[in-house]
């Protein structure tokens, strides 16, 4: 596969030049990225451990949360470690095949996480709108099938993007103004501007995101309708509070993605592009464990036990 990809281009490697040339700023970025990466690993591994060993957390919601944490670890590990190694060794290179793999896995994990957030919204819909049939609707078999469908959709999504991006010829220069390989930056290095291809990617991404978002909205319309029918105010608040972590994570994920796509339509500095990329590749995996642990009493109790 590596040989096939290499034959499509005159370029054998790319240079990731997302960080500024100033040594002091590079060290600052490296230290900050390392601390953020460490926090993301610790937080997500803690969620995985708690939802595995605590018997009170053997529920569908925490099965999905465990998968979300696993995806977040993989998602942030695709970009940050390579960037840290390059900065520490003062080397900016990444092989052509390595760049293709990075594009695939960034889109794969990002698409899988988004699909899983849709599954988690369906779980909240079933728990609140059909509590008597919840165990029958969201049983172990259906949980495995929904998670598998999320992973499969992310794999297809990533495969389409990497196949389309690396079907063009790259004539140079080979400098990528990012700390990782992303599709828009790579398409600017193509022999001829692949505007049609780039728009096709954006349309495909928007269709995928809009479909998932529409289904989430439908789920929460039913949830809000059911919550408003609860007679006591305390009951409404308690029921709706179970949805708040998921709503917060979805908002963070969508907000970072929207800002990224909007910003790419405007001319901006390299530093701003790197900051925008951090929004959707680094921030969600780091904050997701914090959001769920702060708002979830069961996880707090399990954490105190440990």
Automatic annotation (TrEMBL):
<keyword id="KW-0297">G-protein coupled receptor</keyword>
<feature type="transmembrane region" description="Helical">
    <location>
        <begin position="92"/>
        <end position="111"/>
    </location>
</feature>
<feature type="transmembrane region" description="Helical">
    <location>
        <begin position="32"/>
        <end position="53"/>
    </location>
</feature>
<feature type="transmembrane region" description="Helical">
    <location>
        <begin position="199"/>
        <end position="223"/>
    </location>
</feature>
<dbReference type="InterPro" id="IPR050516">
    <property type="entry name" value="Olfactory_GPCR"/>
</dbReference>
<feature type="transmembrane region" description="Helical">
    <location>
        <begin position="244"/>
        <end position="262"/>
    </location>
</feature>
<keyword id="KW-1133">Transmembrane helix</keyword>
<keyword id="KW-1003">Cell membrane</keyword>
<dbReference type="InterPro" id="IPR017452">
    <property type="entry name" value="GPCR_Rhodpsn_7TM"/>
</dbReference>
<keyword id="KW-0472">Membrane</keyword>
<dbReference type="Pfam" id="PF13853">
    <property type="entry name" value="7tm_4"/>
</dbReference>
<dbReference type="InterPro" id="IPR000725">
    <property type="entry name" value="Olfact_rcpt"/>
</dbReference>
<comment type="similarity">
    <text>Belongs to the G-protein coupled receptor 1 family.</text>
</comment>
<keyword id="KW-0812">Transmembrane</keyword>
<dbReference type="InterPro" id="IPR000276">
    <property type="entry name" value="GPCR_Rhodpsn"/>
</dbReference>
<feature type="domain" description="G-protein coupled receptors family 1 profile">
    <location>
        <begin position="43"/>
        <end position="292"/>
    </location>
</feature>
<keyword id="KW-0716">Sensory transduction</keyword>
<keyword id="KW-0807">Transducer</keyword>
<protein>
    <recommendedName>
        <fullName>Olfactory receptor</fullName>
    </recommendedName>
</protein>
<keyword id="KW-0552">Olfaction</keyword>
<feature type="transmembrane region" description="Helical">
    <location>
        <begin position="274"/>
        <end position="294"/>
    </location>
</feature>
<keyword id="KW-0675">Receptor</keyword>
